[in-house]
Amino acid sequence: MDLQEARLFLQNLESDEIIQNFIAQGKSRYILFNVEELQQNFPDYTSRLSERLNQIAFSYLTVGCYLAEGESILEAIGSLKKGAELLEFNHKPIENRELHSKYYILASSIAFYSAYEYSRAFVILKEVEIETPARKTVCLLLRKDFDSLSKHIVSILIDSNYIPQRINITDTEESDINTKVWTFLCAKSIAYILDYFFTGNEDSLNMSKEILSDLLDLLQVEKEPSLWWCIRLFKIITGGLNRSSLWMILPPFFPSRQNLQVGAFIKSLAFRKPIPVVELFISQRNAAKKSTELSSLVVVCLPTSSGKTRLKLQYLMHLLKTRKALFYISLLLSH
User: Fold this and answer.
1) Is residue 332 assigned to a domain?
2) What is the pLDDT of residues 282-329, one digit of tens each?
3) Which of 72, 97, 128 is the last residue of a domain?
4) pLDDT at 335 over 60
5) Residue 34: what pLDDT?
6) Is the residue at 110 inside a domain?
7) Total of domains in the chain
8) pLDDT one-digit tens code per residue, 267-288
9) What residues make up the domain containing 230?
């Protein structure tokens, strides 16, 4: 599917009254689940609504992936977000979960993240535990649990049962061999992403992308759809780091003589506890650019938990380019 076909497909999805009616029903049902309404009081929703919504969700995700892979990321965000929301409507309510809901939730979280909805990606994963090693690796990264992630990756990369060259082919079933190879490649790719977060080494980010491309090809050959979807969406995230990563955003705002200080600042955020900071929201990026271009007073108006404190720290660093000392006064209002 090329970009023009993807746009046409999206237009058909958005203009189809039946599809939009199913989406409205799914949202309505999700609200009723959230307010703990008794299911006996629910309206008479369409038969097999959850199944239909799953199919619609992956239709939107398909469009979003093609647009993102075609470097039209701003166009892709809406489709990725809508696909993620539909999976959330279906599988976040405990009362509506089924056998594979945890994998749909993981796909929803990755899709939210690829659309730069970091908080929503984090929140939807809080209620599920992913057991399979490859998916757990992705899950721990999305949760920003870098300590547990590092230990998990090491446990895979040093285990001879996972290293492709050391797997005992004669005593291992082909399906198990494939799973172990996929797990190893996933762990290795995310290990390179961690190195990039901690050091800013762009070679590590490029290596991660190469490994993910190889893994995606293997999964397509072996017809493993659930992990294939997760890796395809996750690959969009790695591509998006060129726009969202602190290593890409902050250094251009400062003279080269401040590279060490800026690098130290970024590393301090990557090692921050309990939740590291390695990217900026789109709103933060836009505000950051405007604040460093202005010499007068700057007013930042963003919702709660959208990253105003991070912007203040960056603006203070910007001011230190021309000043030796600063006083920061925080006014707290109590109601």
Assistant:
1) no
2) 777 777 666 666 555 667 676 665 566 666 666 666 666 666 555 566
3) 128
4) no
5) 94
6) yes
7) 3
8) 998 998 888 989 887 777 777 6
9) 129-244
Please indicate, yes or no, if residue 333 is contained in any of the structural domains: no
Sequence-separated (6 or more) residues with CB below 8 Å from residue 94: 127
Residue matched to tokens 């961690």: 194
Going from the C-alpha of 44 to that of each of 19, 20, 70, 297, 321, the distances in angstroms are 17, 17, 41, 56, 63
CB of 277 closer than 8 Å to CB of 268: no
Nearest partner of 22 among 107, 86, 81, judged by Cα: 86
| Identity of the residue numbered 301 | C
Binned at pLDDT 50, 70 and 90, residue 162 comes out as confident
Instruction: Tell me the Ramachandran region of residue 276: left when phi exceeds 0, alpha when psi lies from -120 to 50, beta otherwise.
Output: beta
Tokens of 210: 């190469």
3-class SS string, the chain: CCHHHHHHHHHHHHHCHHHHHHHHHHHHHHHHHHCCCCHHHCCCCCCCHHHHHHHHHHHHHHHHHHHHHCCCHHHHHHHHHHHHHHHHHHHCCHHHCCCCHHHHHHHHHHHHHHCCCHHHHHHHHCCCCCCCHHHHHHHHHHCCCHHHHHHHHHHHHCCCCCCHHHCCCCCCCHHHHHHHHHHHHHHHHHHHHHHHHHHCCHHHHHHHHHHHHHHHHHHHHCCCHHHHHHHHHHHHHHHHHHHHEHHHHCHHHCCHHHHHHHHHHHHHHHCCCCCCCCECCHHHHHHHHHHHHCCCCCCCCCCCCCCHHHHHHHHHHHHCCCCCCCCCCCCCCCC
CB-CB contact of 262 with 250 (8 Å): yes
pLDDT band for 222, please (50, 70, 90 cuts). Answer: confident
